[in-house]
Each structure stands twice: as structure tokens, then as C-alpha cells.
Amino acid sequence: MADGESKARQEVVDMWRIYRTTKEMCRDRGYNILESECAMSLAEFESRFSTESGQINRTQMNFSAIPSPDTIQKYTPPATNKITSPEAQIGTLWVEFNGDEAFGMKNLRDFINHLINGGYYSGIMVVIKPLSGMAMRALRAASGLGEGPKGGVEVFLEQDLKINITKHELVPTHLLLSTEEKQQLLKRYRLKETQLPRIQVTDPVAKYYGLRRGQVVKIIRKSETAGRYASYRWAI
């Protein structure tokens, strides 16, 4: 096989892995994703997304996902005297695979406009290379100013999705606590959230699960003596 053909073949395999990991990530965040999508074979992936020339059409890989009823409940704050019917802090997600070698301001504006016009709560963009410095600053500013979709925009590099890091034997199980479960935890142990061990939202596992600042995650590890034990981390 010629070098060019070998490189093209490897790109197909890489995109297949990236697509499956992205589907698994959305499923693990609580979105309704079919198991068949997560377990898609390479042959089926090629038949769905490859062009006549054998290249992968990334735009055909784009998809939306809605959260499950359990996830919606988990992301719905408890009712209060002032807010008797609180809104869920999650909604329809749009995932897009961008094939441009450079992702700049125009790409970001177009993506945010697509999310807003489509009524999506949040968006994930999978890119080949890191965002330009200007686009990264604009993304952070938009999040801080409340511009764009309510749930914000996340960006992942393709190379970071070739392998699902949560499947590694050294990565323990992570379970997001609802607001109510978080309050019960703090009350039970008479703690303030700032007294909990912390996890950065930029941590690879935290980013995989889409943890937001202020959320608490339960981490279950295996123990030779206790079987399993749980610890908790506060996302910052």
C-alpha cells in the first residue's frame, strides 16, 4: 500500500474511533444515544460517512442529542419559594465535526449562530487543531457575558477523542450529583462545598463528563480491603 493510501486509511480509522468516543461521551453525560451508535463497526462507519474518493465527510457526522428524563431531573434545581418551577439547566446538544485546518473567529461565530438559530442549549465542536488565540479569547468572553447558547460551547481536539480515557483501568467511575444530592451530602457531613477536595473542570475526565463549576462528582474506586469506596470532588 502506498504511503498516501496508508495515510488516508489511517484517517478513516481515526475518525471512526473519534466518532464512537464522541457518541460514548454524550451517552455518559446522560443524553439519549443508541448503543448501536457507540458500537458502530468500521465498515458501517465507512458506508455512512465516506465519499467516493474514500475520504470521510465530517459534515455528515454531525448530530444532535437530547438529555434523558433522568438527566433532565438531575439538572433541574430544587423548587424554592421564589422559583416554584425551575428550568432544567440542560437541553438539546449539537455536536459538529469541523474539517478546517485552522479554526478562527469566523468559524466560531458561524457555530454560535447555528446553535442560537437552531435553539440548541449547548454545543460541542470537534476540531483538527487548537483554536486561534483570538477565537479562544472570544469563546471565553462569550461564556462570561452570557452570549451564545445557555449551556455554552465546548471544543475538543480530534486527537483527544481517539481513545475513550474513561475506559482505562486506572480511571475510576465518576457519577454527577444533582443539586439536591449535593445539598444532602454537605448537610450529612456538615461541610461547605469549599471544604471538599477539588477537581479542575479542565481535567481530562472532568472535561469528558462536561462538569461545570460548582458541581460535585462522586468517584467510586476499587479497594482490596473494602471492595469499593467513594470520595467526592467539587468542580472548580
| Number of E-type strands | 8
Biggest beta-sheet profile: 4 strands, mixed
Strand order of the largest sheet: 1-2-3-4
Can you count the helices?
A: 8
Shape: globular
Low-confidence stretches: none
Helix content: 25-40%
Estimated structural class: alpha/beta
* Average pLDDT for all residues: 91
Strand content: 15-25%
Provide the gyration radius in Å. Answer: 20 Å
Order of helices and strands: HHHEHEHEHEEHEHEE
Distance between the termini: 49 Å
Protein name: DNA-directed RNA polymerases I, II, and III subunit RPABC1
Keywords: Nucleus, Transcription
Domain RNA polymerase Rpb5 N-terminal: 10-114
InterPro entries: Arch_Rpo5/euc_Rpb5, RNA_pol_Rpb5_N, RNA_pol_Rpb5_N_sf, RNA_pol_subH/Rpb5_C, RNA_pol_subH/Rpb5_CS, RPB5-like_sf
Give an overview in words.
Belongs to the archaeal Rpo5/eukaryotic RPB5 RNA polymerase subunit family. InterPro entries: Arch_Rpo5/euc_Rpb5 (IPR014381), RNA_pol_Rpb5_N (IPR005571), RNA_pol_Rpb5_N_sf (IPR036710), RNA_pol_subH/Rpb5_C (IPR000783), RNA_pol_subH/Rpb5_CS (IPR020608), RPB5-like_sf (IPR035913). This is DNA-directed RNA polymerases I, II, and III subunit RPABC1. This protein has 236 residues and is α/β, with parallel strands linked by helices. Helices cover 37% and strands 18% of the residues. The strands form two sheets. It has a four-stranded mixed sheet with strand order 1-2-3-4, with helices on one face. A four-stranded mixed sheet has the order 5-7-8-6, with no helix packed on it. The longest helix is centred in the first third of the chain and has 26 residues, at 3-28. The protein is globular. The model has no long low-confidence stretch (mean pLDDT 91).
